[in-house]
Amino acid sequence: MLDLHLHYKRLGTALALVMVLFGSTRAFKHYYSVEQIPSELAANPTPPVAPIIEETTLTLASGGSVQKLLTGFGVNKESALQIANAFAQFVPHNKLKSGQDFNVRYKRSEQGVEIESFHSQSSIDQKIIITKADGNYISKAEKIHLTPVVHVFEGNVHSSFYSAAMKAGVPTKLVQEAVDVLSYVVNFQHGIQPGASFKILCNALRNDKGDIVKIEQLRFVSLKTGQQDHKLFAFTENGKMRFFNEKGESVVRSLLQTPLNATKLCVTSGFGMRRHPLLGYNKQHKGVDFGAPTGTPVLAAGEGRVVACGWSGGYGNRVHIRHSGGYETVYAHLKFINKNIKPGAAVSQRQVLGGVGMTGSATGPHLHFEVILNKHHINPMKVQALPSLKLTGGSLKKFETVKSATQKEMVDFIQTKAVA
Ligand SMILES: [Zn+2]
Questions:
Q1: In angstroms, what is the span from residue 361 Cα to ligand 1's centroid?
Q2: Distance 288 CA to ligand 1 centre (A)
Q3: Which of 72, 120, 135, 264 has the most CB atoms less than 10 A away?
């Protein structure tokens, strides 16, 4: 190729003309760049090599130190110690965690590896930079600029709300918070149809590269399934943050729709429940069944007092709780009942009663859950438990403002994303 290029000079004018005729601008440019190759470089294509500065990322192994990491990379002991000490001025040795990344720029020579600069993030908003000056390594901290932003996660539920949210990138803590607020109003197994859509809006921090580096406050969660469209808004009043529905009613209900740790619940009744003939509520089957892995924590649906607990024929291990307003709840087929759950004991909402099992006449691990109102069994999925609080007056006005602002932020985020 190079030999051919050398002949271009003579062919120059003619070739340029041909290229213009063919309309190949790119080739035309290339032709001139070839013309400009310095003759000495063409004659001797490998100029004398200065040590090339390379870059790489070193990751701290478990139990490792900065010094060991560097000597292992080929840096001499003295320099490695200097760099380690410079870094320790900001991050003490004992605060280092395995998996920490260090970006290094270095030169490799016969003497070994020489570090030019070394930097690592010490927290989400600070990085430590070590540079070489007059043969010594000096360190400084640099603030990483973070911008508060709103972030929206979206997804569709196929097997479980929990796994769909995780798949959408929602951090675990935020998923748990969303599950907790939705548990009051959604039956996470029978109340969600496959394909249901959700949105989760939260406050977050973004770095200059555009990456979300920290998720802060959950501010809105919606779940749309069939005819139902749950929209829950965070609203802070007197320093207390609570979730409310669109009407300004507290999401906290006297009874949970899902009296289980919902992270383990699939929207189809799996877990060996296929042969169970009675999944839904009817005259013979006076409750709803939640198929869940053995041992899944069973939660008290509401505050109340234990009426009875222990073995009860086909129910297996059963807990019966009386609540206010004429409500009672029953939890059956438990693998075990917690020791502090005894007749007469007071229980709080979400208190763990025991674990899912298949005791009694159960054919697979599941929770059989009944709701009784004024001595009559009612369909737990149709319970209209009362909200603990309903906003009125000035509070409701403030809430309406927050609600509109949140909805606008949601629309803005989705539109911006669509454009990008
Ligand atoms: Zn049942």
A1: 9
A2: 6
A3: 120
Nearest by Cα to 100 from 109, 91, 108, 89: 91
Mean pLDDT by 10 residues, the chain (420 residues): 42 41 39 46 61 91 91 93 93 88 91 90 91 89 93 93 93 93 91 92 91 92 93 95 95 92 75 48 82 95 96 96 95 97 96 97 91 93 83 96 96 86
Residues that place a CB less than 5 A from ion ligand 1: 289, 368
Which pairs count as long-range contacts for 401-404, CB under 8 Å and 24+ apart, including other chains? 402/233, 402/235, 403/233, 403/235, 403/246
Q: What is the pLDDT of residue 54?
A: 93
Q: Compute, in angstroms, the gap from residue 262 CA to the centroid of ligand 1.
A: 18
Ligand 1 centroid to 254 CA: how many Å? 22
CA of 313 relative to ligand 1 center, distance in Å: 13
Residue 152 CA to residue 150 CA, distance in Å, equals 7
* Distance in Å, CA 278 to ligand 1 centroid: 6
**Token couple for 325:** 């307003």
- pTM for the full model? 0.71
What is the distance in A from the centroid of ligand 1 to the CA of 177?
28
265-382 has which CATH code? 2.70.70.10
Determine the pLDDT at residue 9.
Answer: 42
Q: What pLDDT shows up at residue 345?
A: 97
How far away, in angstroms, is 196 Cα from ligand 1 center? 25
For ligand 1, the distance from its centroid to the CA atom of residue 279, given in whole angstroms, is 6
Number of Cβ within 10 Å of residue 189's Cβ equals 28
Decide whether 53-143 matches 265-382 in CATH topology.
no
What separation in Å is there between the alpha carbon of 41 and the centre of ligand 1? 84
Q: How far is the CA of 404 from the centre of ligand 1 (A)?
A: 42
Helix axes 8-22, 25-35, angle to 10 degrees: 170
What CATH number belongs to 147-244? 3.10.450.350
- Taking the domains of the chain in order of start, what are their residue ranges? 2-43, 53-143, 147-244, 265-382
Distance from residue 351's CA to the centre of ligand 1 (Å): 21
Does the 53-143 domain belong in CATH 3.30.450.20? no
What residues does 128 pair with on adjacent strands? 120, 141
